[in-house]
Amino acid sequence: MELFTIITLLIVLSALFGFLNQKILKMPSTIGLLVISIFFTICLLIAGSFNKTIYEFGQTFVGSIDFEAILLDVMLSFLLFAGALHINMDKLKKQSGPIIIFSTVGVVLSTFIVGTSFYYLLQLIGFPIDYIYALLFGAIISPTDPIAVLGILKEAKAPKKLEIKIVGESLFNDGVALVVFITLFGIAKAGVSEISVSNILLLFAQEVIGGIALGVAVGFLVYYMLKSIDHYETEIIITIAMVMGTYLLAHTLHFSGPLAVVVGGLFIGNKARKTALSDETERYLDKFWEIIDVILNAVLFVLIGLELMVLTFEGKYLIAGLVSIPIVLIARFAVLSLPIKFFKKKLDLVPKTSLLMTWGGLRGGISIALALSLTQAMQHDLIVTATYVVVIFSIVFQGLTLKKMIQKFIK
């Protein structure tokens, strides 16, 4: 199927599902789009069982979409930049301690807790897998999604100090989780004996430190470019070039592209906003990136729902996914509790911060994209199905109940 046809159908479906959500369901945008997309896909599957042509068209359409490439190579950089652009650095600095720990140590610990628990639970239900593949699942499911949760937090009128923790952590842990995943993926392909601890630490340092340094360098360059002119059309084009160029350069240098883009977005959204942008440019820049964010969000969650068309749903895979849900939630609560307890005396935390951040840690498209990138030898179908089950549960069930939970604990 041609690229233009695929893009057209995705935009048409996103617009239609968005309309139905606003007219009928009236759910938060991301949740409503996902629910309608899943319902639409199930209808296609049912219709396809009676009419082979419908089924083949659905399979061809969804099968021709490279979800991993679209999200990780194209959409992710724009979504992360749009999210980072509106984060207040002054508030972020106050919460920097817990955010750094959550998005680094927390991701690594979560990977091992989830992976180890997944490994032993699968043995209990008579479906053993290699430990390294279980760890890969832990790395895949550990990053939380700022895209899915931000709208819900705003609708629930969550306190800014809670919102900045959840969104700030999500923006940074995507980059760290990708580094952890790449490391484990390399070990799984080459074998444990072929990769040393020093190689792992070097890769981790190169990706993380290199990504942050690149983001700062590009941020400074673009800041001076924006400061030297006052022409909002050109300045918007410069930010687009910044996102795409930074991500491409990071990929070429083997740095973390997500971290580089987030740091660059924070730089432009704060330093440039204060001293380099005119009021007119700031207004147009914000509106432009809000629209980009909305469009890509819509397409992403429609894509997540459509992926149901090509998944392999076996009973044992679904069971593995269902038992993963409490594992993921307990692991997240565990890795959050100790840092939150440590920072409780230093920071003014909202009540039940651990519980709210656990429930607000929604999983999204990044997890599905990473799962889809696995080879068949790495228990591809099992991990993709388990990941999909956890993602759908977190977005729909946790997403729909998060607002009530915030309102219950925070008056």
State the gist of this model:
With 411 residues, this protein is an all-alpha fold. The protein is built from 18 helices and no strands. α4 (67-85) packs antiparallel against α14 (279-306), α6 packs antiparallel against α15 and α7 packs across α8.
Folded structure, characterized:
- The chain is mainly alpha-helical and about 400 residues long.
- It has one domain (about 70-410): Na+/H+ antiporter like fold (Up-down Bundle).
- The chain has 18 helices and no strands.
- It has helices at about 5-25, 30-50, 50-65, 65-85, 90-95, 95-105, 105-125, 130-140, 145-155, 160-190, 195-225, 230-255, 255-275, 280-305, 315-345, 355-360, 365-370, 380-410.
Helices and strands, with pairings:
Elements: H1 3-25, H2 29-50, H3 52-63, H4 67-85, H5 89-94, H6 96-103, H7 105-124, H8 131-141, H9 146-155, H10 160-190, H11 197-227, H12 232-253, H13 257-275, H14 279-306, H15 315-343, H16 353-359, H17 365-372, H18 380-409
Helix pairs in contact: 1-2, 1-14, 2-3, 2-14, 2-18, 4-12, 4-13, 4-14, 4-17, 6-10, 6-15, 7-8, 7-15, 8-10, 8-18, 9-10, 9-18, 10-11, 10-13, 11-12, 11-13, 12-13, 12-14, 15-16, 15-18, 17-18
